[in-house]
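User: Hi! I have a protein structure encoded as tokens and I'd like to know what sequence might fold into it. I'm fairly new to this, so please keep things simple.
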């Protein structure tokens, strides 16, 4: 395999294996069929492999040589066979193509419309649908098409085409077309086969030819996708066809309250794009006043914004929450030498360029042979008439004698001929009418021979310098067709859009302590401002915890002690009572399943202190008791180990506490403070 090419392992050999001979144990009634190893399984495996190979090679995956799927090749061949320069009904082409294609007319019609809408090879007349709105094409009997000049000149040459019988053996169809342009990357392709899929993004015609010229000149090159819908594209992750691109709609600011979408991303329509904007507005991700679709020949979606909505922020929200920005992945799988192969863009272009050189060389060689034959024939005619060799046959009495007389008459002039005189040449000379002999213009004939010799010399020179000839050929195509296919999708570099930043502080969560509700649409104590995309961590006094989406109204009871935006790695500090002991724990909440309640403290616990930080010191005051000599203590906790959510923690004290906190109580008396506290670790 060459660089940029990898043979796929699915079918190392596309031909099905021959079935093994049936053993006595595999015969019906032997019991082996229950294990799945009988002849029926082998038959199914064989048939499945045949089907998979057929779908891969003959339906879904394009061929590397001409860049076409079989149905596309048959459509173009049908158009070429019926081409008279006039438009032809699509229904007629579909009917003609069915002679070569073993499937229904619907698939042919859809493929033809899709191929025509790429505007390279097929000229349209009538309603072929609308790529922008997604409207379908009219019925095949109402629309017409014909080959473009580019298709006529650059993808057909019956003299260089290999033909095979059709599926029913009645006709012949081309194996591949001798295309001299990189159709695979021009058109793009998408297909799903058995175990294999391909997605080849379309590229710009002129840029592909420029890249081929660079290859022939042994210079570096680079090409990027180009979509007919236009838009903006960030291709930093394209990776020569093995990555993805980001495509954005082109959004203009009409005035202080109006945005206009002029171009849409590939894979979307104005309907789906509008629907995604309306959905985002309903979810509160973007604020809009109205949206109107005025799309006709070009996209035009008008978005009216409310007075409080900033234009730049609204534009960013459209890219973040709607189909105004989409990601398009690319994986190039093609059929090469009858097998599926994964390649990249540079490898394909180099292959296309070498194939172009081979086709041009074959065309020049055929032209050289044709010119040589014409010069030979015209020289024979001149010698035959100028030297009156036709007079030598007047006395001949047989056909053989006539032919021999002509051959002998030409012997003195063999040095003037391009090749030896054959019997076919003699028959051609004998068939010249007397009128033509009498009116023969020697000077005109000599001028024609000289013109042919000059042309032959040019051909031979091109053959000896085939690479410069190929470069001139490509430059000629650029001059002729390049201006018809300008780049539609513009390159750009997109900054990272944070959806949470766009929606930060949009919601204010309140807590009604009397009724036990929290939410964005209730009254009560304000707790936290957040984004609709955030997740909230709720913690109760009994040690329960739960992760929820920001609610409109949610019952949480009156024992809620903590509500904050979830940060799985944030260190929390808790002190809780359980079974006559007070425990200390420093922990992270870790991963939680949304809306599923769990615990950070054992059942029956009573949380006395919770901090969403890591205080260095805890101040503890004990309930007055004659048996307790120490009333107050300081516990240094800054060096304590951070534990998991499920850990029990360390025993802080067995005494009943009156106060615990990261700061001194208002009535703290330093004289009553005892020695530093000590933890009892489990």
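Assistant: Happy to help. Inverse folding works backwards from shape to sequence: for each of the 682 positions I chose a residue that suits the local structure. Here it is:
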């Amino acid at each position: 395999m060459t660089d940029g090419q990898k043979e796929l392992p699915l079918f190392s050999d596309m031909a099905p294996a021959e079935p093994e001979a049936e053993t006595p144990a595999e015969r019906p009634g032997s019991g082996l069929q229950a294990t799945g190893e009988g002849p029926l399984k082998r038959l199914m495996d064989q048939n499945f492999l045949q089907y998979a190979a057929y779908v891969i090679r003959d339906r879904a995956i394009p061929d590397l040589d001409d860049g076409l799927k079989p149905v596309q090749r048959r459509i173009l061949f049908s158009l070429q066979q019926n081409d008279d320069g006039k438009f032809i009904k699509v229904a007629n082409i579909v009917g003609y193509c069915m002679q070569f294609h073993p499937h229904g007319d619907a698939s042919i019609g859809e493929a033809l419309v899709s191929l025509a809408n790429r505007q390279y090879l097929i000229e349209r007349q009538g309603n072929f649908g609308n790529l922008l709105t997604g409207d379908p094409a009219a019925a095949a009997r109402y629309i017409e098409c014909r080959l473009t000049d580019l298709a006529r000149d650059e993808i057909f040459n019956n003299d260089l085409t290999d033909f095979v019988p059709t599926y029913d053996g009645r006709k012949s169809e081309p194996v591949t077309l001798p295309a001299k342009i990189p159709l695979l990357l021009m058109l793009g392709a998408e297909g799903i086969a058995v175990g294999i899929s391909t997605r080849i993004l379309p590229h710009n015609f002129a840029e592909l030819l420029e890249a081929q010229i660079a290859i022939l000149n042994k210079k570096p090159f680079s090409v990027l996708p180009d979509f007919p819908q236009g838009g903006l594209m960030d291709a930093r992750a394209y990776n020569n066809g093995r990555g993805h691109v980001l495509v954005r709609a082109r959004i203009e600011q009409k005035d202080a309250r109006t945005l206009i979408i002029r171009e849409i991303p590939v894979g979307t329509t104005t309907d789906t794009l509008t629907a995604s904007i309306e959905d985002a507005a309903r979810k509160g991700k973007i604020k809009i006043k109205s949206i109107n679709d005025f799309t006709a020949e070009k996209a035009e979606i008008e978005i009216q914004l409310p007075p409080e909505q900033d234009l730049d922020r609204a534009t960013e929200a459209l890219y973040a929450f709607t189909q105004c920005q989409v990601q398009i992945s690319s994986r190039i799988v093609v059929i090469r030498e009858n097998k599926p192969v994964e390649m990249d863009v540079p490898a394909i272009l180099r292959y296309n360029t070498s194939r172009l050189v081979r086709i041009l060389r074959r065309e020049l060689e055929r032209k050289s042979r044709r010119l040589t034959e014409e010069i030979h024939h015209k020289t024979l005619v001149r010698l035959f008439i100028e030297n009156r060799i036709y007079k030598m046959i007047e006395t001949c009495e047989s056909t053989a004698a006539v032919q021999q007389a002509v051959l002998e008459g030409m012997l003195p002039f063999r040095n003037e001929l391009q090749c030896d005189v054959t019997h076919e040449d003699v028959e051609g000379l004998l068939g010249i009418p007397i009128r033509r002999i009498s009116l023969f213009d020697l000077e005109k004939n000599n001028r024609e021979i000289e013109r042919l010799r000059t042309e032959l010399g040019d051909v031979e020179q091109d053959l000896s310098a085939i690479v410069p000839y190929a470069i001139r050929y490509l430059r000629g195509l650029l001059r002729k067709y390049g201006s018809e296919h300008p780049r539609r999708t513009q390159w750009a570099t997109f900054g990272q859009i944070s959806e949470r930043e766009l929606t930060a502080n949009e919601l204010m969560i309140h807590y009604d302590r009397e009724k036990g509700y929290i939410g964005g649409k209730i009254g009560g104590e304000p707790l936290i401002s957040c984004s609709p995309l955030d997740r909230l961590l709720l913690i109760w006094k009994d040690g329960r915890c739960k992760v929820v989406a920001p609610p409109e109204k949610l019952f949480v009871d009156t024992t809620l002690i903590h509500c904050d935006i979830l940060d799985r790695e944030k260190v929390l500090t808790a002190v809780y009572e359980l079974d006559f002991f007070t425990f200390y724990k420093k922990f992270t909440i870790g991963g939680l399943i949304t809306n599923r309640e769990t615990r950070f403290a054992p059942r029956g616990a009573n949380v006395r202190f919770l901090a969403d930080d890591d205080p260095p010191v805890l101040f503890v005051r004990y309930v007055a008791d004659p048996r307790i000599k120490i009333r107050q203590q300081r516990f240094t906790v800054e060096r304590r180990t951070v534990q998991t959510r499920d850990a029990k923690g360390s025993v802080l004290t067995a005494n009943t506490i009156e106060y615990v906190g990261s700061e001194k109580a208002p009535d703290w008396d330093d004289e009553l403070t005892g020695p530093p506290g000590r933890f009892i670790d489990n």
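A useful reference point when you look it over: The chain has four domains: 5-202, 250-323, 362-484, 503-672. Feel free to ask if any position seems puzzling.
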